[in-house]
């Protein structure tokens, strides 16, 4: 349950170096540190969350812990400070938190993460494939060499490799949740490669649900809309940041904790008959 989170209607123009830091954002995002209260919906579950250092990943880690789950997160080496804050918030709830620095752009990196997470937690019940890369480009000619490869390696290949590596450890009742995006449905030209990668994840979600469903493993996706995370000031021009989210029907950007509740639901036994679906958390934009 989320209470008293700050509605983001007026954001100031601001910019950071990629990959950005939560504590340098104005206002600082709400990850549920004080606004979220758990109801024991994930007691006994062991969850891996990639990209768990900040933004949606951090909020999901905190919410999962408050619901009774032990957590492992991955983060880029340069995001160690943010990851330490996630670790502190999770362990403050009394749950385990293991943080692993990993880039995840190769099959070998994902194999290693899977092995280390299973060893640390004793198994995995929930996999949240959330790590992502995006960088806006003003035109097709402005795309840096290698960006498309990096975007797809991080956003599409990594979830595939990670789930493949964890496949033998997943049991009936396990839940896989993939982070896609409103960009899969309403692509923005400056995010050409990112939007295409998220559309690919929608397809991957449906196919994996069909593949793993007979084993009692559920696969779903969450499609966030404009959410206030470090990716925004670190990948968008400052002049676009102050209007971020204003074009949604709700007229504002969302807080990370407002998305994390969707992951809690899909990871919980309350969603025992939900698989192969994309749950939109978009401020009113359609996901269909």
> How big a fraction of the residues is strand?
5-15%
Strand order of the largest sheet: 3-2-1-4-5-6-7
Secondary-structure element string: EHEHEHEHEHEHHHE
**Integer-rounded radius of gyration:** 17 Å
Work out the helicity level: 25-40%
Structure, briefly:
The protein is an alpha/beta fold and 288 residues long. The protein has helices spanning 55-66, 80-91, 107-121, 147-166, 192-212, 231-235, 238-241, 256-267; strands at residues 46-49, 70-75, 97-101, 126-129, 175-179, 218-224, 278-281. Helix 2 (80-91) links the parallel strand 2 and strand 3.
What are the SSEs and their pairings?
Elements lengths: L45 E4 L5 H12 L3 E6 L4 H12 L5 E5 L5 H15 L4 E4 L17 H20 L8 E5 L12 H21 L5 E7 L6 H5 L2 H4 L14 H12 L10 E4 L7
Features:
globular; single chain; 12% strand; seven-stranded parallel sheet; alpha/beta; 288 residues
Describe the structure.
With 288 residues, the protein is an alpha/beta fold. It has 8 helices and 7 strands; from the N terminus they run E-H-E-H-E-H-E-H-E-H-E-H-H-H-E. A 7-stranded parallel β-sheet has the order 3-2-1-4-5-6-7, with helices on both faces. Helix 5 (192-212) links the parallel strand 5 and strand 6 (218-224). Helix 4 (147-166) runs parallel beside helix 5 (192-212). It is globular. The two termini are 27 Å apart. The mean pLDDT is 93.
């Amino acid at each position: 349950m989320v209470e008293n989170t700050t509605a983001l209607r007026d954001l100031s123009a601001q910019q950071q170096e990629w990959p950005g830091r939560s504590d340098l954002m104005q206002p600082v995002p709400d990850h549920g540190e004080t606004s979220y209260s758990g109801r024991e919906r994930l007691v006994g579950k062991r969850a891996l969350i990639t990209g768990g250092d900040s933004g949606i990943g951090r909020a999901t880690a905190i919410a999962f812990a408050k619901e009774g789950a032990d957590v492992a997160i991955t983060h880029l080496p340069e995001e160690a400070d943010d990851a330490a804050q996630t670790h502190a918030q999770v362990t403050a709830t009394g749950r385990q938190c293991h943080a692993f620095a990993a880039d995840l752009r190769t099959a070998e990196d994902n194999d290693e993460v899977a092995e280390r997470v299973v060893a640390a937690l004793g198994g995995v019940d929930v996999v949240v494939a959330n790590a992502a890369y995006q960088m806006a480009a003003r035109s097709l000619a402005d795309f840096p060499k290698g960006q498309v490869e990096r975007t797809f390696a991080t956003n599409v290949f990594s979830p595939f490799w990670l789930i493949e590596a964890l496949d033998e450890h997943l049991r009936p009742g396990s839940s896989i949740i993939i982070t896609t995006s409103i960009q899969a449905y309403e692509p923005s030209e400056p995010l050409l490669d990112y939007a295409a990668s998220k559309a690919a994840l929608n397809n991957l979600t449906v196919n994996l649900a069909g593949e793993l469903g007979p084993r009692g493993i559920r696969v779903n996706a969450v499609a966030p809309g404009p959410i206030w995370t470090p990716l925004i000031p670190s990948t968008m021009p400052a002049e676009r940041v102050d209007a971020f989210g204003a074009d949604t029907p709700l007229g504002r950007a969302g807080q990370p904790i407002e998305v994390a509740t969707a992951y809690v639901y899909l990871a919980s036994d309350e969603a025992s008959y939900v698989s192969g679906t994309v749950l939109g958390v978009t401020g009113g934009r359609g996901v269909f």
